[in-house]
Amino acid sequence: MNEVVAHHAAVPADGEAKAVDAEVSRARPRALLADDHTLVREGLLRLLAGELEIVGAVADGRALVSAAEQCQPDVILVDVTMPLLNGFDAARQLRRLCPRGRIIFVTVHAEPDYVHEAFRAGAHGYVVKTAASAELLLAVREVLAGGMFVSPGLVHEPWVGAPEGEGEGELSSRQREVLQLVAEGRPAREIGDILGISRKTVEFHKARLMRALGLRSVAELTRYAVEHGLVSGR
């Protein structure tokens, strides 16, 4: 589902009311959100619509990156585990393509490694879904004011640090992209079409990342991707 779903507030027929509504709309921060679960997207929309102008709601990481580049929102809400491109790697691209956007992860993952990786990827906030109804608007206000926000149950850990530099980490950005798509069960030709590279280049990256991780099979690659939140284990 790569379609961006835009949402606009209804405008009254009265001319004066129109002017007031237009002024309010311009004053509200613009938000883009991504989650591969329809019910979660709808819940987030209901929660945020009174305070933010929702410019789009998408279901996968690549649609998120494309929409953010086009819309240039003020705040971006993103899940960790999404099809085609996970939230961590989407955030890395968003830092370059939408530098003004403040990124908040909204996810079920509360494990330390996930939270740390989110901030390394460029997050400004991290909210666990079980607390979203109480904390998400607080997180949005905090990051839009220039601060950072982490769900209170997680703040005992030193999450917030400088984002990683380009090329840091065990795998390159391209290798992580190939890893996720392989773990999703996509054949090399389809992966090449998605990434705009040849099938041989896909196989090259696949072989390189298997050597880097010390893995020997697609099953082991898939297990690694699930354990690191790149694909869903469901």
Automatic annotation (TrEMBL):
SUPFAM superfamilies: C-terminal effector domain of the bipartite response regulators, CheY-like. Keywords: DNA-binding, Phosphoprotein, Transcription, Transcription regulation. InterPro entries: CheY-like_superfamily (IPR011006), NreC/VraR/RcsB-like_REC (IPR058245), Sig_transdc_resp-reg_C-effctor (IPR016032), Sig_transdc_resp-reg_receiver (IPR001789), Tscrpt_reg_LuxR_C (IPR000792), WalR-like (IPR039420). CDD domains: LuxR_C_like (cd06170), REC_NarL-like (cd17535). It holds the Pfam family Response_reg. Residues 30-144 form the Response regulatory domain. The keyword Transmembrane does not apply. The keyword Cell inner membrane does not apply. Residues 164-229 form the HTH luxR-type domain. The modification 4-aspartylphosphate is found at D79. Transmembrane segments: none annotated. This is Response regulator transcription factor.
